[in-house]
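Quick review question:
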């Protein structure tokens, strides 16, 4: 039996079981850095945005500490308070904690504005181990004495910069001021405007700062190319490109699990072996696909963004963005899989007309225009016969050091 990387971080069996059930095999960077600190009782300032796995980063150690402390909340009492700026995020956090904590035997409630308070008041009567709340409604219920904050020993403020944008910072301050001083506090924010820095000073004690803010710079060693291509032509283009042995070790990215499965299916029809890794695959299947890729037995890996987070494989020659990411930072993460350890690499993006806006966001983020190597729909729009995709592939536009060719447009 292999040791789970999550158990190496100090997480106990009931949580490991829940994580195995979710097919989480590798901690994300924020999880790897934050979980041990929280288990040690440290305060943490986490610079991270949604999508980095930050809910599990604070949720897993929180569940473990609460389960180990074995205290019971008094009537209307709360042991751990999680503040969220929006209803959606509050519900998402609540759902995630229920999933991760399903073998922990803790009780949880969620309090949000915009719905009747009756059910929320009832849920608080006996007290709860974990309360996820938006600030306004929480203050209402505290004022009405349906919620007591004098037993809170763990505080988490999530998306602090959005609290600020939405005008909730004063409410958050009032809540923090009503909490016991002896507590563990965590603050997460994607950015650190001055008011969030002040809030962090007020509520955290000697915090450890963990920063996983996405890089906005791309390595100069990566050649970035874009191919404007209709969505239905992408599969043909990919197959053609893969005839070139220069694409020796390739990760193909899609936005969704479904997209990844489709790419694998199409490649297999064309006689090209490929495997997908994403959250719906069993842990064994993912480990096997990764090992095959890492050890050079497989040339191709098809991955979604989240599944690719833990991937650290040297010698990836090409990253293909079969679908552009809708979050521009993901582009930087994706193409950073190549050109590791001083090597060079090539990133090829397939951009369908409906993905133009994603491309613009990416170019804004990386502060450069990405070289166009094919422009079929645009040529067609100008009334010219498009250069067949096959010809582009033959010109081998994705080799290094042939910039002249690389910049050639549809003739
Ligand atoms: P969050 O940033 O907390 O909103 O998480 C983003 C998404 O990543 C959620 O859908 C989680 O279920 C998923 N996730 C979190 N941690 C992991 C992990 N270690 N492995 C795979 N998926 C994860």
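Suggested answer, residue by residue:
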């Amino acid at each position: 039996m292999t040791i789970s990387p999550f158990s190496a971080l100090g997480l106990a069996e009931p949580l490991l079981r829940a994580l195995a059930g979710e097919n989480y095999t590798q901690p994300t960077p924020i999880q790897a850095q934050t979980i041990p600190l929280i288990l040690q009782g440290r305060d943490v300032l986490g610079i991270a945005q949604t999508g980095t796995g930050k809910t599990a980063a604070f949720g897993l150690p929180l569940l473990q500490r609460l389960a180990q402390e074995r205290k019971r909340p008094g009537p209307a009492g709360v042991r751990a308070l999680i503040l969220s700026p929006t209803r959606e995020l509050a519900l998402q956090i609540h759902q995630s904690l229920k999933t991760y904590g399903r073998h922990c035997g803790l009780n949880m409630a969620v309090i949000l504005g915009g719905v009747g308070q009756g059910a929320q008041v009832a849920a608080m009567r006996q007290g709860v181990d974990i309360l996820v709340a938006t600030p306004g409604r929480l203050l209402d219920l505290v004022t009405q004495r349906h919620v007591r904050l004098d037993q809170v020993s763990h505080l988490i403020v999530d998306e602090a910069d959005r609290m600020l944008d939405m005008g909730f910072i004063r409410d958050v301050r009032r809540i923090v001021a009503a909490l016991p001083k002896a507590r563990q506090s965590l603050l997460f924010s994607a950015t650190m405007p001055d008011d969030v820095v002040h809030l962090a000073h007020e509520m955290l004690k000697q915090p450890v700062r963990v920063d996983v803010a996405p890089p906005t710079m791309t390595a100069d060693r990566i050649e970035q190319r874009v191919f404007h291509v209709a969505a239905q032509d992408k599969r043909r283009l990919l197959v053609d490109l893969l005839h070139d042995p220069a694409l020796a070790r390739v990760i193909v990215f899609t936005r969704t699990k479904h997209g990844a499965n489709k790419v694998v299916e199409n490649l297999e029809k064309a006689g090209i072996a490929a495997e997908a890794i994403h959250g719906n695959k069993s842990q064994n299947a993912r480990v096997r696909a990764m090992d095959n890729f890492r050890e050079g037995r497989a040339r191709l890996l098809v991955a979604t963004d989240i599944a690719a987070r833990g991937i650290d494989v040297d010698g990836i020659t090409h990253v293909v963005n079969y679908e552009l990411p809708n979050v521009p930072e993901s582009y930087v993460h994706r193409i950073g899989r190549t050109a590791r350890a001083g090597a060079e690499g090539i990133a090829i993006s397939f951009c369908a007309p409906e993905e133009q806006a994603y491309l613009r966001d990416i170019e804004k983020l990386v502060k450069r225009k990405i070289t166009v190597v094919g422009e079929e729909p645009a040529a067609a729009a100008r009334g010219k016969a498009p250069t067949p995709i096959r010809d582009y592939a033959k010109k081998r536009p994705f080799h290094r050091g042939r910039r002249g060719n690389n910049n050639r447009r549809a003739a």
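Why it works: Residues 377-386, 401-411 have pLDDT under 50 and may be disordered. The domain at 222-395 is CATH 3.40.50.300 (Rossmann fold).
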